[in-house]
Amino acid sequence: AVGVTLRREVAPQSQVAIHSFWEYATFGVNTFLFLSVGLDTRPEALQGHLPGVGMAVVAVVLGRAVAIYLPFLLLRLFKPAETIPLRWQHVFLVGNIKGALSIGLALGLPESTPAREQIVSIAFGVTLVSMVGQGLMLTSALKALGLFQQDAVALEMAEQRGKLIASRAAHVELDALHTQGLLPRAAYEHLRSEYQVNIARAERELRRISEQHLAEGAKDLLSMRRRLIDAERTALQGARRNGLIPEATAEEMLAHLDARMLDLEKVLHGGHASKDSKEHKAS
Predict the structure, then answer these.
(1) Which residues, at least 6 apart from 151, have a Cβ–Cβ distance to it below 8 Å?
(2) What is the pLDDT of residues 180-223, one digit of tens each?
(3) pTM of the full predicted structure?
Protein backbone atom coordinates (compact mmCIF):
# COMPACT_ATOMS: atom_id res chain seq x y z
CA ALA A 1 0.00 0.00 0.00
CA VAL A 2 2.83 2.38 0.84
CA GLY A 3 4.55 1.63 -2.47
CA VAL A 4 1.37 2.20 -4.48
CA THR A 5 0.76 5.48 -2.67
CA LEU A 6 4.31 6.64 -3.30
CA ARG A 7 4.07 5.91 -7.02
CA ARG A 8 0.84 7.89 -7.20
CA GLU A 9 1.64 10.86 -4.96
CA VAL A 10 5.43 11.36 -4.93
CA ALA A 11 7.04 13.48 -7.64
CA PRO A 12 8.91 11.61 -10.41
CA GLN A 13 12.24 13.13 -9.36
CA SER A 14 11.75 11.78 -5.83
CA GLN A 15 10.79 8.35 -7.16
CA VAL A 16 13.99 8.15 -9.21
CA ALA A 17 16.02 9.21 -6.17
CA ILE A 18 14.32 6.61 -3.97
CA HIS A 19 14.90 3.81 -6.50
CA SER A 20 18.56 4.78 -6.89
CA PHE A 21 19.04 4.96 -3.13
CA TRP A 22 17.65 1.48 -2.50
CA GLU A 23 19.65 -0.03 -5.35
CA TYR A 24 22.87 1.31 -3.87
CA ALA A 25 21.75 0.43 -0.34
CA THR A 26 21.02 -3.18 -1.32
CA PHE A 27 24.39 -3.51 -3.03
CA GLY A 28 26.17 -1.98 -0.04
CA VAL A 29 24.43 -4.18 2.53
CA ASN A 30 25.11 -7.37 0.56
CA THR A 31 28.76 -6.39 0.10
CA PHE A 32 29.13 -5.63 3.81
CA LEU A 33 27.52 -8.92 4.81
CA PHE A 34 29.75 -11.05 2.62
CA LEU A 35 32.86 -9.13 3.68
CA SER A 36 31.85 -9.66 7.30
CA VAL A 37 31.40 -13.38 6.71
CA GLY A 38 34.75 -13.55 4.96
CA LEU A 39 36.45 -11.89 7.91
CA ASP A 40 34.54 -13.93 10.49
CA THR A 41 34.68 -17.38 8.83
CA ARG A 42 37.84 -19.45 8.44
CA PRO A 43 38.02 -21.81 5.43
CA GLU A 44 39.13 -24.71 7.62
CA ALA A 45 36.14 -24.10 9.91
CA LEU A 46 33.78 -24.20 6.92
CA GLN A 47 35.31 -27.48 5.77
CA GLY A 48 34.66 -28.96 9.18
CA HIS A 49 30.95 -28.14 8.90
CA LEU A 50 30.34 -29.56 5.40
CA PRO A 51 27.98 -32.32 6.67
CA GLY A 52 25.95 -29.71 8.51
CA VAL A 53 25.89 -27.51 5.43
CA GLY A 54 24.65 -30.43 3.33
CA MET A 55 21.85 -31.26 5.76
CA ALA A 56 20.90 -27.58 5.98
CA VAL A 57 20.73 -27.30 2.18
CA VAL A 58 18.44 -30.34 2.01
CA ALA A 59 16.25 -28.90 4.78
CA VAL A 60 16.06 -25.53 3.03
CA VAL A 61 15.07 -27.11 -0.30
CA LEU A 62 12.43 -29.31 1.33
CA GLY A 63 11.02 -26.40 3.32
CA ARG A 64 10.96 -24.24 0.22
CA ALA A 65 9.18 -27.00 -1.73
CA VAL A 66 6.48 -27.27 0.94
CA ALA A 67 6.09 -23.47 1.02
CA ILE A 68 5.69 -23.37 -2.78
CA TYR A 69 3.78 -26.46 -3.84
CA LEU A 70 1.30 -26.66 -0.95
CA PRO A 71 -0.18 -23.13 -1.38
CA PHE A 72 -0.44 -23.63 -5.14
CA LEU A 73 -2.15 -26.99 -4.56
CA LEU A 74 -4.71 -25.29 -2.31
CA LEU A 75 -5.12 -22.55 -4.91
CA ARG A 76 -5.82 -25.16 -7.58
CA LEU A 77 -8.47 -26.78 -5.37
CA PHE A 78 -10.32 -23.59 -4.43
CA LYS A 79 -9.59 -21.26 -7.37
CA PRO A 80 -8.68 -23.37 -10.42
CA ALA A 81 -8.88 -20.37 -12.75
CA GLU A 82 -6.04 -18.61 -10.90
CA THR A 83 -3.68 -21.56 -10.65
CA ILE A 84 -0.11 -21.46 -12.01
CA PRO A 85 1.29 -24.22 -14.27
CA LEU A 86 3.45 -26.76 -12.49
CA ARG A 87 6.58 -25.98 -14.46
CA TRP A 88 6.40 -22.36 -13.37
CA GLN A 89 6.14 -23.59 -9.79
CA HIS A 90 9.43 -25.41 -10.36
CA VAL A 91 10.97 -22.05 -11.28
CA PHE A 92 10.02 -20.69 -7.85
CA LEU A 93 11.90 -23.61 -6.31
CA VAL A 94 15.03 -23.42 -8.46
CA GLY A 95 15.19 -19.66 -8.86
CA ASN A 96 14.63 -18.63 -5.25
CA ILE A 97 18.22 -17.44 -4.68
CA LYS A 98 18.57 -15.83 -1.26
CA GLY A 99 20.92 -15.69 1.68
CA ALA A 100 21.72 -12.15 2.82
CA LEU A 101 19.07 -12.15 5.54
CA SER A 102 20.19 -15.47 7.05
CA ILE A 103 23.82 -14.32 7.05
CA GLY A 104 22.86 -11.06 8.73
CA LEU A 105 20.90 -12.87 11.43
CA ALA A 106 23.74 -15.32 12.03
CA LEU A 107 26.33 -12.56 12.31
CA GLY A 108 24.05 -10.69 14.69
CA LEU A 109 24.20 -13.45 17.28
CA PRO A 110 26.17 -12.54 20.42
CA GLU A 111 29.68 -13.95 20.75
CA SER A 112 28.55 -15.96 23.77
CA THR A 113 25.93 -17.86 21.74
CA PRO A 114 26.62 -21.62 21.86
CA ALA A 115 27.87 -23.02 18.53
CA ARG A 116 27.88 -19.51 17.00
CA GLU A 117 30.79 -20.37 14.69
CA GLN A 118 28.93 -23.43 13.44
CA ILE A 119 25.76 -21.43 12.78
CA VAL A 120 27.65 -18.73 10.86
CA SER A 121 29.56 -21.32 8.81
CA ILE A 122 26.40 -23.25 7.93
CA ALA A 123 24.54 -20.05 7.02
CA PHE A 124 27.42 -19.01 4.76
CA GLY A 125 27.64 -22.49 3.22
CA VAL A 126 23.92 -22.62 2.44
CA THR A 127 24.04 -19.12 0.95
CA LEU A 128 27.07 -20.04 -1.14
CA VAL A 129 25.32 -23.14 -2.51
CA SER A 130 22.16 -21.13 -3.17
CA MET A 131 23.83 -18.27 -5.01
CA VAL A 132 26.50 -20.20 -6.90
CA GLY A 133 24.82 -23.57 -7.40
CA GLN A 134 21.32 -22.34 -8.16
CA GLY A 135 22.63 -19.36 -10.09
CA LEU A 136 24.66 -21.59 -12.41
CA MET A 137 21.91 -24.15 -12.93
CA LEU A 138 19.04 -21.68 -13.39
CA THR A 139 19.47 -21.27 -17.15
CA SER A 140 19.79 -25.03 -17.67
CA ALA A 141 16.69 -25.62 -15.55
CA LEU A 142 14.69 -23.09 -17.55
CA LYS A 143 15.79 -24.75 -20.80
CA ALA A 144 14.87 -28.19 -19.45
CA LEU A 145 11.42 -26.90 -18.47
CA GLY A 146 10.94 -25.36 -21.90
CA LEU A 147 10.71 -21.84 -20.51
CA PHE A 148 13.94 -20.39 -21.86
CA GLN A 149 13.39 -19.15 -25.39
CA GLN A 150 15.76 -16.69 -26.99
CA ASP A 151 14.10 -14.03 -29.10
CA ALA A 152 15.40 -14.63 -32.61
CA VAL A 153 14.42 -11.12 -33.71
CA ALA A 154 16.25 -9.50 -30.79
CA LEU A 155 19.33 -11.61 -31.45
CA GLU A 156 19.33 -10.69 -35.13
CA MET A 157 18.94 -7.01 -34.29
CA ALA A 158 21.77 -7.23 -31.76
CA GLU A 159 24.03 -8.90 -34.33
CA GLN A 160 23.40 -6.20 -36.93
CA ARG A 161 23.90 -3.48 -34.33
CA GLY A 162 27.22 -5.06 -33.36
CA LYS A 163 28.33 -5.12 -37.00
CA LEU A 164 27.32 -1.47 -37.36
CA ILE A 165 29.23 -0.39 -34.25
CA ALA A 166 32.35 -2.34 -35.25
CA SER A 167 32.32 -1.08 -38.84
CA ARG A 168 31.88 2.55 -37.80
CA ALA A 169 34.70 2.28 -35.27
CA ALA A 170 36.97 0.80 -37.93
CA HIS A 171 35.92 3.55 -40.35
CA VAL A 172 36.91 6.24 -37.84
CA GLU A 173 40.25 4.55 -37.20
CA LEU A 174 40.81 4.25 -40.94
CA ASP A 175 40.29 8.00 -41.39
CA ALA A 176 42.74 8.67 -38.55
CA LEU A 177 45.39 6.45 -40.14
CA HIS A 178 44.95 8.18 -43.48
CA THR A 179 45.13 11.66 -41.92
CA GLN A 180 48.38 10.73 -40.19
CA GLY A 181 49.86 9.56 -43.47
CA LEU A 182 50.20 5.96 -42.34
CA LEU A 183 48.06 4.52 -45.12
CA PRO A 184 48.50 4.87 -48.87
CA ARG A 185 45.71 6.54 -50.80
CA ALA A 186 44.80 3.44 -52.83
CA ALA A 187 44.59 1.19 -49.77
CA TYR A 188 42.57 3.86 -47.93
CA GLU A 189 40.02 4.12 -50.75
CA HIS A 190 39.67 0.35 -50.98
CA LEU A 191 39.19 -0.18 -47.23
CA ARG A 192 36.95 2.87 -46.94
CA SER A 193 34.54 1.60 -49.60
CA GLU A 194 34.52 -1.83 -47.96
CA TYR A 195 33.54 -0.47 -44.55
CA GLN A 196 30.99 1.90 -46.09
CA VAL A 197 29.32 -1.11 -47.69
CA ASN A 198 29.30 -2.91 -44.32
CA ILE A 199 27.80 0.12 -42.59
CA ALA A 200 25.11 0.55 -45.24
CA ARG A 201 24.25 -3.16 -45.13
CA ALA A 202 23.92 -3.18 -41.33
CA GLU A 203 21.78 -0.03 -41.37
CA ARG A 204 19.56 -1.53 -44.07
CA GLU A 205 19.10 -4.76 -42.10
CA LEU A 206 18.25 -2.89 -38.90
CA ARG A 207 15.69 -0.83 -40.77
CA ARG A 208 14.19 -3.96 -42.33
CA ILE A 209 13.91 -5.74 -38.97
CA SER A 210 12.28 -2.71 -37.37
CA GLU A 211 9.76 -2.41 -40.18
CA GLN A 212 8.88 -6.12 -40.23
CA HIS A 213 8.76 -6.52 -36.44
CA LEU A 214 7.09 -3.38 -35.13
CA ALA A 215 6.99 -4.51 -31.49
CA GLU A 216 10.73 -5.20 -31.36
CA GLY A 217 11.43 -1.98 -33.20
CA ALA A 218 9.30 0.00 -30.75
CA LYS A 219 11.05 -1.64 -27.79
CA ASP A 220 14.43 -0.81 -29.28
CA LEU A 221 13.33 2.78 -29.84
CA LEU A 222 12.25 3.06 -26.20
CA SER A 223 15.63 1.76 -25.05
CA MET A 224 17.38 4.35 -27.20
CA ARG A 225 15.12 7.06 -25.79
CA ARG A 226 16.21 6.04 -22.31
CA ARG A 227 19.87 6.47 -23.26
CA LEU A 228 19.12 9.85 -24.80
CA ILE A 229 17.35 10.97 -21.62
CA ASP A 230 20.46 9.98 -19.65
CA ALA A 231 22.54 12.11 -22.03
CA GLU A 232 20.15 15.05 -21.55
CA ARG A 233 20.36 14.69 -17.78
CA THR A 234 24.15 14.63 -17.83
CA ALA A 235 24.26 17.76 -20.01
CA LEU A 236 21.81 19.63 -17.78
CA GLN A 237 23.70 18.73 -14.62
CA GLY A 238 26.94 19.91 -16.19
CA ALA A 239 25.34 23.18 -17.31
CA ARG A 240 24.00 23.73 -13.79
CA ARG A 241 27.39 23.10 -12.21
CA ASN A 242 29.06 25.52 -14.63
CA GLY A 243 26.45 28.21 -14.00
CA LEU A 244 25.15 28.20 -17.58
CA ILE A 245 21.52 27.83 -16.48
CA PRO A 246 19.83 28.87 -13.20
CA GLU A 247 19.28 26.28 -10.48
CA ALA A 248 15.48 26.58 -10.67
CA THR A 249 15.47 26.04 -14.43
CA ALA A 250 17.73 23.01 -14.11
CA GLU A 251 15.56 21.46 -11.40
CA GLU A 252 12.41 21.93 -13.46
CA MET A 253 13.95 20.41 -16.59
CA LEU A 254 15.45 17.51 -14.63
CA ALA A 255 12.03 16.82 -13.11
CA HIS A 256 10.55 16.55 -16.61
CA LEU A 257 13.34 14.16 -17.60
CA ASP A 258 12.68 11.99 -14.54
CA ALA A 259 8.97 11.85 -15.41
CA ARG A 260 9.81 10.77 -18.95
CA MET A 261 12.24 8.15 -17.66
CA LEU A 262 9.64 6.66 -15.30
CA ASP A 263 7.11 6.50 -18.12
CA LEU A 264 9.61 4.73 -20.37
CA GLU A 265 10.30 2.17 -17.64
CA LYS A 266 6.56 1.56 -17.26
CA VAL A 267 6.09 1.10 -21.00
CA LEU A 268 9.08 -1.23 -21.27
CA HIS A 269 7.62 -3.36 -18.47
CA GLY A 270 4.12 -3.41 -19.90
CA GLY A 271 2.65 -0.41 -18.12
CA HIS A 272 1.21 2.86 -19.39
CA ALA A 273 2.57 6.36 -19.47
CA SER A 274 1.34 8.78 -16.86
CA LYS A 275 -1.09 11.57 -17.59
CA ASP A 276 1.47 14.26 -16.71
CA SER A 277 3.99 12.87 -19.18
CA LYS A 278 1.40 12.68 -21.97
CA GLU A 279 0.45 16.29 -21.36
CA HIS A 280 4.12 17.30 -21.34
CA LYS A 281 4.72 15.55 -24.67
CA ALA A 282 1.60 17.12 -26.16
CA SER A 283 2.75 20.55 -25.12
Answers:
(1) 216
(2) 988 888 999 999 999 999 999 999 998 888 888 777 777 778 87
(3) 0.49
